[in-house]
Description:
Blueprint: E1 2-12, H1 20-28, E2 35-45, E3 48-58, H2 64-73, E4 78-90
Antiparallel strand pairs: 1-3, 1-4, 2-3
Amino acid sequence: MGAILVVYKVFPEDIVEDFEPLKAKIKAILPQASAIEGWGTEDVAFGLKALLVQIRFPEDKMGVVEEFEQALAKIQGVSQAEAFNIRRTSRD
């Protein structure tokens, strides 16, 4: 069965130096049978950084991506989040 890989760019409401608390909040809303594949940061402007997170979602579970995105948007401290790389892959 395949999987959906999505990379999200998560913009904090303010300048953040330590993304660990935000990472913990994202891990807490991760749907069952999904996995975080990696983290990163990207400089945006004037000291503002965005958190990048790559997540593997099961392809066979309907609505799981949408539910995650709704929960992600509600996390306190998140200004906005956008999916900027979405692809289908086979599971190893």
